[in-house]
Amino acid sequence: MSSDRLKNRNQRHIIERIIVKGTLVLNTPSCLGSGDVDGDTDLVLLRDSREDKALLMGSSIAGALRNYLREYQNGYSATEELLLFGCLRSDEEGEQSPLIVNDALSNENIKAELRDGVKINSVTRTAEPGAKYDLELLEAGTKFDLYFELLIDAENNKKQLVRELAIVLKGLEHGEISIGTKKRRGFGRTHVEEWQVWEFDMTNPNQRLQWLTLDRDWAESYTKSPNISKSIETALQVQLDAKDKRDRLTIEAKFILASPLLIRSGQASTDKAPDVVHLKSRRDEELKPILSGTALTGALRHRAEKIINTLTQGKKQLFTEQIVNEIFGFVKDKNQILESTNNEQKKKAKASRLTVEAL
């Protein structure tokens, strides 16, 4: 931000604060990666420096909520026009977000599971050399205590801010917002069990004191009771009538195995296990066999390639690659980027349009 902008900038006159707390529960394992390449796995969990608890960064939560709100209100690939999350990083003259999102620690020590993955060559149907990887995942059922604080100043449109906050928190409540990496492959599905909402009028001295002493054990006499509800609309006392502008197709189907299925797991549950065991993941405190989103997506991707190659008689490989990448996303290595001939081809990565849930 320029020095002239700082000199002439009006400080916010905060007249109200809305605090929202909720308990976030993982429905499926989540990969909250730390980016540390020196760990025991290729992607290790982000941990608190003082306790053996998982750390869910406030920036990660805010990013997921921001993207959800943009798509919900404007549709996919739309430009952003949001009041709740402030300006874009590229806007040096913009305003900061009025929403404070705190980091969250898991309520218990980390319970992790390991997951292996590999890239398959679509021609040879064998593993690509050096393309094996493993992830450290946080088990389903892990809980985090979330904390949000919305600042309302005299110039803000309170109605719009509260409405946008209700939209994103309702998305969390109903499990429409995933957290962590590989969200399009069934990881990081969540829901919120219960909401607590406090509203403080900062022009009222008593309520200012209540805000200052919130969560202080020695100040119980000043404590203000929250609105408690499983519905964020009820807790915030708003009624949402916004239309979801995401244009999407959802398919739900029930499949029956015609033959035995084996999705290989690199982690045996006991010393007496066979050399190869089927993949299992913990659900409701019990290990259950699953059909992973990554395995199912891999099968769908290879089938899509086969269909397009059949239709084009294998003569339009670039065309096949473009369609498959558009649907399933891609990550290119350095050599592929150097060989690209235009700006579109030089993109390093693109997220999948297709979301496949673990079963």
UniProtKB/TrEMBL annotation:
Q: Which GO terms describe its biological process?
A: defense response to virus
What's in the keyword line of the UniProt record?
Answer: Antiviral defense
Domain named CRISPR type III-associated protein: residues = 24-189, 257-355
Pfam families per UniProt: RAMPs (PF03787)
Residues annotated as coiled-coil are none
PANTHER family in the record: CRISPR SYSTEM CMS ENDORIBONUCLEASE CSM3, DUF324 DOMAIN-CONTAINING PROTEIN
- Protein name (record): CRISPR type III-associated protein domain-containing protein
- Species assigned in the record: Fischerella muscicola CCMEE 5323
